[in-house]
Amino acid sequence: MSNRYSPEVPKIHATAIIEGDVTLASDVVVGPWCHLMGTLGPLSVGAGTVLRSRVQLEGPLTIGEHNVFYPNACIACAPQDLGASPDIAGAGVIIGSHNVFREGVTISRPKTDAPGRIGDHNYWMTNSHAGHDCVVGNNCVFANASSLAGHVDVADRVITGGNSGVQQFVRIGRGAFIGGLSGATQDVCPFFMVLTVNHARAVNVIGMRRAGFSTASIDAARWVFATLCRSRMAPKGAMEILKTRADDPIIAEYIAFIESSKRGIVIARGRHEKGE
Which of 41, 59, 98, 132 is catalytic? Predict the structure, then answer.
């Protein structure tokens, strides 16, 4: 095993432990009591990344540029599974650039042969968690104590509220919003807002506007929501209606998402309040 971190890096605190196959860019900052463990697999940290203190990183792990890790973040540690051995490296985790991992964030390494992946410009608040084999896109925000179970797939610009939960193998479409104290055990369509467990209540219009979508695209998403969640049609009938406008890119995205779903999708259930 080699230890390839540069002895010329000026900001590796004396209390940090760096062992095994570890590569650090020349301007990485490693704060007090951090542990970088490259004994199970290679660990590399890109330029401009800061480990503030007490950060645990385990290989195999690749971290891009300009990420910030706050105290007690544990990244690419063993899966939280009774049958998972902490001594098996697995495929590891690949993290992009410009992410922030606040205090106590945990990202587990995978059980399968494919690496877990975190994209760019994501903000993970205190004690948020992504289980083994998760794939997360870009520009997402996970509020305090948000929890993604194993094998969850999260697209771009997703927001989860505090203490929300997503069950294993669920997919969250781009721009979706999951409110605090709520969650999903089925797939959440793009731009849908889930404000109680498995109840799609509205379209994330504010999120679409912030992402630069046109009024026509927002209206298309609203029409899809009304067709799926307000028309009281059976899902098969609602899909046939959607396909009459399949030439619209937004509507085509919904059709493709729904047709590829293995768990079914979250829709509105029961009577809705006046004005929703």
Answer: 132
C-alpha–C-alpha distance, residues 153 and 142, integer Å: 14
CA distance 259 to 80: 31
End-to-end CA distance of the chain: 60
The pairing of strands 100-101 and 123-124 is: parallel
Q: Does the pLDDT value for residue 201 go beyond 70? A: yes
- What backbone torsions phi and psi does residue 169 show, to the nearest 5 degrees? 65, 10
Give the fold, CATH level 3, of 174-271.
Udp N-acetylglucosamine O-acyltransferase; Domain 2 (1.20.1180)
Catalytic residue among 150, 179, 183, 207: 150
Catalytic status, residue 132: yes
* Active-site option among 21, 120, 133, 153: 133
Q: Is the pLDDT of residue 218 over 60?
A: yes
Q: Where residue 21 falls among pLDDT bands split at 50, 70, 90?
A: very high
CB 36 within 8 A of CB 21: no
Is 150 catalytic? The answer is: yes
> Domain 17-138 sits in which CATH superfamily?
Hexapeptide repeat proteins (2.160.10.10)
The H or E element containing residue 173 is: none
Mean pLDDT, rounded, of the chain: 94
Structure tokens at 235: 């899902």
Q: Is the dihedral of CA 229, 235, 237, 243 positive or negative?
A: positive
Please state, in angstroms and rounded to a whole number, the distance separating the CA atoms of residues 5 and 151. Answer: 33
